[in-house]
Specification:
The structure holds 2 protein chains of 2 kinds. By secondary structure, chain A is mainly alpha-helical. Chain A has a two-stranded antiparallel ribbon with strand order 1-2. In chain A, α8 runs antiparallel to α11, α13 runs parallel beside α18 and α17 packs across α22. Chain A is globular. Chain A starts with a helix and ends with a helix. In chain B, α3 packs antiparallel against α4 and α14 packs antiparallel against α19. The longest helix of chain B has 32 residues. The chains are: A mainly alpha, B mainly alpha. Chains A and B meet through β1, α5, α6 and α25 of A and α7, α12, α14, α16 and α17 of B.
Chain lengths: 635, 484
């Protein structure tokens, strides 16, 4: 066993151990489970951080099989790990952000009855997330993929005794399963084409066969993107994420903002060989697979941001924002800006986790009220939380020198070639800045709108403030590695990780995207300031009245949930219940069976009349039967 | 040795006739002891089994009785039979252990019936003589019929007869085919027939394939022959349901792998597409049916239709991946569906209702039982890392290789599975605690033992399935060679 093996085992094993200990004995351990789980994460983050460092700065690149999971016919699937710069980034993000959110949770969940259960699930989540990013083949990634889905399901439904969480948990799992079906089909196709599911073998084979098998490779790209739209909440499967906010807020920060939902982006970036090979191959509606990814991403970014504009629920605003930001990442990845996509994934993990944690802190202070219309003026009561939300908000609005500025700029540069996507994202940037600061101003500035709540508000304890502080520092400095465009530290670290088409054009790094993005951000914030600080509430009310149709549509989130329910869920249930179950099963099949039974019963009754009921007759029949049987056997 | 495993339960049942009816505890102790011993015997088989020759029949015994030269007593097992015998002895043992509180009347008859059933089931898997196989196949009907008819619920007579008639009707063509084969080939010996029958003309093979397979299709059960299953399950006592789902259904898929496919490869080739389509309909249709049920046992019963659809799809794919996946689906289904029937039985013992709407939020009251419930539900719907996934994945990938369209049609089954199973969990386990459930006790030590022993295998298969795949890798290889 090499040192690297050992470090991988420790990184993955520590959260698993924490899950087992807390899962089996947590209920007897009082307040210990939180500390056990956090300790395990500290161990995991240390060794995982070291591995990430090696991968990013010392070019550590290993793919190693540990044991054979399945070997059947020509299907050989190992359990093994792959460490390269992409894994390095994910390892660092996952373990680092998880660690601080674990610590925060000790304070946040202190009085919850399910304290031990919460930490067991949280450790389980990290375990599966690490499988997802460390696996050296599609199947292991899939194991982690569904495993994090399980953790997400359990944590969304954490307060299972209430109705909304149990509904939301199930919705998340089922919608994700639709995406997972795409993942499965993608794997089947890849295996059928190349006889392997190992990343290195598959991607080499893709590059060698990209002319002959172009259409199939493109189809695989589409199927894996279907999977990504589930896990990473893109159109048309994004609907589970806003509901997922029923879970505890640190869970929203960790799973539904920083890590799990980025798995789809990871998958697309990991499969860059697939997407880059089929840039010119139209598959769906005449679009190539990468262009489809980019368009869906950009549309999702725009669409989700528009719903965040008018929402009044603190966590839902952030949820729509997450959907929207994930859309940015896909837009970049689809335009072959993999490094930019992963860069945004990395900065987003810090500032969005931070924003959720500050939201949790606000909820803590406001007795779980989420309606921003009942807040206001909280800066005086929660100065640290306010400061941290301001930092996170500036990063999200992409204002320099905060981290989001650098990564969003990289994305806009990556998509500049396509005017539609570019302008969609620029307008989205404006909306992003607007809804972010609408939220911030409504919560922290102005006058308290609910005096009673306001008076009872109190700042969170240090155990919650410290993790927010760390993430706030991250939200400020994380972007600096991207300074310098193609010569930046980020570009050097990820050099050679992604595959590009041979004739990829290296466009000039013009400053236009930066100017456009920055303008959008500043204008958005300014608009929010005008509407929600200077002229509140007259202008917002006036605007809602003038643009009433648009406002109603946005406020009701385009009725997408209702449409899905009316067009898919209800008809499917109705058909199953009335046509299939009652019609086919009961009437058609059972009816036929029962009818046959009655007919034969009738025949039987008829023949019985012919018979005497005499015992001797039966004896004769019995004898005849026996004779026939013996005759047959004796032949 | 093999005969000992087959007939030990039968022989051990004889002294029970002389027990006095009031010795209720003794019956359970005796039954537990016998089935445990039987489990150990079957493990001895496993120990003595040579895995390097897993496709050949081992522990072969062949005796001629009553001068019937052409119909000897002939048994032997390969890897496929062995793993199914192990599953049988394991589930029968758990079935007896689980029945202490559930069965309150006619305990003597109950234990005897279970033991007879065990012999019949093992006999089915171990027979190498076609008519002897048929006798065990029919013999197994009677104890199962008795289990449903004597210890069943309200509608037990209808269900028992439906079960009996459906299965009996299915076996008539099989008997005819067996007699025809004997008249034309002069032997019942399976190994001999394996050499000669595949060379028969295609049309004959097609007919014989159909004659054998109708009975197997009913047993599996495949759409549209499945409607006996929900009724039988709902009426059967817990252990009856466990055995029914865990073992009896596997006799159908086993029949395909042992008889229909290798004896009539051209017939199989001809009907493969039809079987695959029926299997896919079973997957989707069974899942949708499970979704709309209001009775927990019916829900699990319909989910069996879906799971066995995956097994049949794997067999229809006709490649080693699909076939081995099918065997793994069979094993995993035995464990997880067995566990779900145990769990539903535990709830029934406590509340005397199986209706989903009578339960809500039991996690508030019985967290351990709920944890097992959610765990087994997830294992059943194929969560990676647990047993259900491996088989489903292999059968689907095998099907995709055989015909990509089958893959695309079957995959929605995993979404439907999540819908029906999670909606069951959502309604029963989660939510506000219903007042009637507020006094339920959590799992007892004995119940926990049953569930944990199943859970160990569920995790083992999910994380490291190779030891289980090794039972059938050579068998699958031979089957596939027969097809080409």
């Amino acid at each position: 066993m090499t040192t690297i093996d050992l470090l991988v085992y420790i990184t993955v094993g520590a959260p698993l151990l924490g899950f087992i200990i807390n899962g089996l004995f947590g209920r007897y351990l009082g307040k210990l489970p939180g500390w056990i789980a956090t300790l395990m994460l500290a161990v995991s983050a240390t060794s995982g951080g070291y591995l990430a460092y090696q991968a990013l700065f010392n070019h550590l690149h290993v793919s190693k099989d540990i044991y054979t999971w399945v070997s059947v016919g020509n299907l050989h699937i190992p359990v093994g790990y792959l460490i390269d710069p992409l894994t390095g980034v994910m390892l660092f993000v996952v373990t680092f952000v998880s660690l601080w959110i674990h610590l925060y949770s000790i304070g946040y969940m202190e009085h919850d009855k399910g304290y031990w259960r919460y930490f067991a699930y949280l450790n389980m989540f990290v375990f599966f997330m690490l499988l997802l990013v460390l696996g050296n083949n599609f199947l292991m990634t899939f194991v982690g993929w569904e495993g994090v889905g399980l953790a997400s399901y359990l944590l969304i439904g954490f307060w299972y005794f209430n109705d909304a969480p149990r509904q939301a948990g199930m919705k998340a799992f089922v919608v994700n399963r639709i995406g997972d079906a795409g993942f499965l089909l993608g794997m089947f196709l890849i295996f059928t084409l190349f006889g392997s599911l190992k990343y290195e073998e598959v991607f080499n084979a893709v590059l060698q066969n990209k002319e002959v098998m172009a259409l199939f490779i493109a189809l695989a790209g589409v199927l894996f993107f279907v999977a990504a739209t589930g896990k990473s909440a893109q159109i048309p499967l994004y609907v589970w994420l806003p509901d997922a906010m029923e879970g505890p807020t640190p869970v929203s920060a960790l799973i539904h903002a920083a890590t799990m939902v980025t798995a789809g982006v990871y998958l697309v970036a990991r499969a860059s060989a697939i997407y880059s090979s089929v840039v010119d191959v139209p598959v769906v509606f005449g679009l190539s697979a990468p262009l489809l990814v980019a368009l869906v991403g950009a549309l999702t970014a725009f669409f989700a941001a528009s719903m965040a504009l008018v929402n009044n629920d603190l966590k839902r605003i952030l949820a729509f924002s997450t959907v929207s930001q994930l859309g940015y990442m896909f837009a970049a990845a689809g335009m072959l800006g993999y490094a930019a996509a992963v860069f945004h994934l990395y900065t987003h993990a810090f500032f969005k986790a931070l924003l959720f944690l500050t939201a949790g802190s606000v909820m803590h202070a406001m007795h779980d009220v989420l309606d921003i219309q009942r807040m206001g003026g909280l800066w005086k009561k929660l100065p640290w939380t306010g400061l941290f939300m301001l930092i996170g908000g500036l990063a999200l609005a992409a204002i320099p020198p905060f981290s989001g500025f650098f990564s969003k700029d990289e994305i806009l540069v990556a998509v500049e070639k396509n005017p539609l996507i570019f302008w969609l994202l620029v307008v989205t940037a404006l909306m992003t800045a607007f809804y972010t600061f609408r939220m911030f101003f409504m919560v922290f500035l102005g006058k308290p709108r609910d005096q009673h709540l306001y008076e009872h508000a109190h700042e969170s304890p240090p155990i919650m403030l410290i993790p927010m502080g760390i993430l706030a520092i991250g939200a400020i400095v994380a972007g600096f590695v991207g300074i310098g465009g193609e010569n930046s530290l980020w570009a050097k670290m990820l050099h050679g990780t992604f595959v590009f088409p041979e004739h990829a054009a290296h466009g000039e790094h013009s400053s236009f995207p930066m100017i456009a993005g920055l303008t959008a951000g500043v204008v958005g914030i300014a608009l929010a300031y005008l509407m929600y600080v200077l002229f509140w509430p007259s202008v917002p009310v006036l605007m809602a009245r003038i643009f009433k149709p648009i406002y109603v549509v946005l406020y009701n989130r385009y009725w997408v949930d209702e449409i899905y329910d009316a067009l898919i869920v209800k008809p499917l249930y109705g058909i199953s219940r009335w046509i299939l179950f009652v019609g086919v099963d009961r009437v058609l099949i059972d009816g036929t069976v029962n009818a046959l039974a009655w007919v034969s019963y009738g025949f039987g009754a008829f023949f019985r009349k012919l018979q005497t009921g005499n015992v001797r007759t039966y004896a004769v029949w019995l004898l005849l039967g026996a004779l026939v049987l013996i005759g047959v056997l004796a032949l | 040795m093999l005969s000992l495993v087959i007939f030990f339960p039968l022989v051990a049942a004889i002294p029970l006739f002389f027990f006095r009816p009031e010795w209720r505890r003794t019956y359970w102790v005796y039954g537990t002891f016998v089935t445990l011993l039987e489990l150990l015997f079957s493990i001895a088989l496993l120990m003595g089994f040579d895995f390097s020759r897993a496709a050949e029949f081992q522990f072969v015994e062949r005796y001629v009785f009553f001068g019937l030269q052409n119909a000897p007593y002939y048994v032997g097992i390969d890897g496929l039979a062995l793993i199914l015998i192990l599953l049988t002895t394991f589930l029968t043992f758990l079935g007896i252990v689980s029945s202490y509180n559930y069965i309150k009347e006619k305990v003597q008859a109950y234990v005897i019936t279970m033991l007879l059933l065990e012999t019949a089931m093992i006999g089915v898997f171990a027979s190498l003589n076609v008519i002897q196989f048929f006798i065990f196949w029919e013999a197994q009907l009677i104890p199962m019929f008795v289990l449903i008819a004597l210890w069943g619920h309200e509608n037990r007579v209808y269900a028992a007869f439906k079960f009996l008639i459906y299965t009996a009707v299915g076996s008539v063509p099989m008997l005819a085919a067996i007699i025809w084969i004997y008249l034309n080939y002069g032997t019942f010996d399976y190994p001999t027939l394996l050499q000669t029958l595949p060379k028969a003309a295609v049309d004959i093979q097609k007919l014989l394939f159909l004659a054998f397979s109708v009975g197997f299709m009913i047993k599996v059960p495949m759409f549209p022959f499945h409607t006996w299953l929900p009724d039988a399950h709902v009426e059967a006592p817990t252990a009856g349901s466990v055995i029914l789902a865990g073992i009896l259904l596997k006799m159908g898929t086993f029949g395909f792998l042992r008889y229909s496919l290798p004896l009539f490869p051209d017939g199989f080739e001809a009907y493969r597409g039809l079987i695959a389509i029926l299997a896919i309909i079973g997957i989707i249709y069974g899942g949708l049916m499970a979704w709309v049920q209001s009775d927990m046992k019916k829900l699990v019963a319909y989910s069996s239709v879906a799971h066995m659809g995956f097994a049949m799809l794997g067999i229809a794919s006709g490649n080693p991946i699909g076939i081995q996946g099918a065997v793994l689906v069979m094993i995993s289904h035995g464990l997880t569906t067995g566990a779900l029937f145990f769990l539903v039985g535990m709830l029934y013992e406590r509340r005397h209702t199986r209706l989903i709407r009578d339960y809500s939020g039991i996690a508030n009251r019985v967290p351990n039982l709920s944890t097992f419930f959610v765990f087994m539900a997830l294992a059943s719907i194929g969560l990676p890392g647990l047993s259900g996934f491996v088989g489903e994945f292999l059968t689907m990938i095998g099907a995709y290789r055989a015909n990509p369209v089958w893959g695309y049609l079957a995959v929605p089954g995993v979404v439907v599975a999540a819908i029906y199973m999670l909606s069951l969990v959502k309604r029963v386990v989660f939510g506000k605690l219903d007042p009637e459930s507020a006094k339920m006790p959590d799992v007892s030590f004995r119940e926990a033992l049953i569930l944990v022993s199943l859970a160990i295998f569920v995790i083992w298969i999910g994380v490291y399935p190779m030891p289980f795949l090794n039972f059938t890798d050579k068998v699958a290889g031979i089957l596939v060679n027969l097809l080409h």
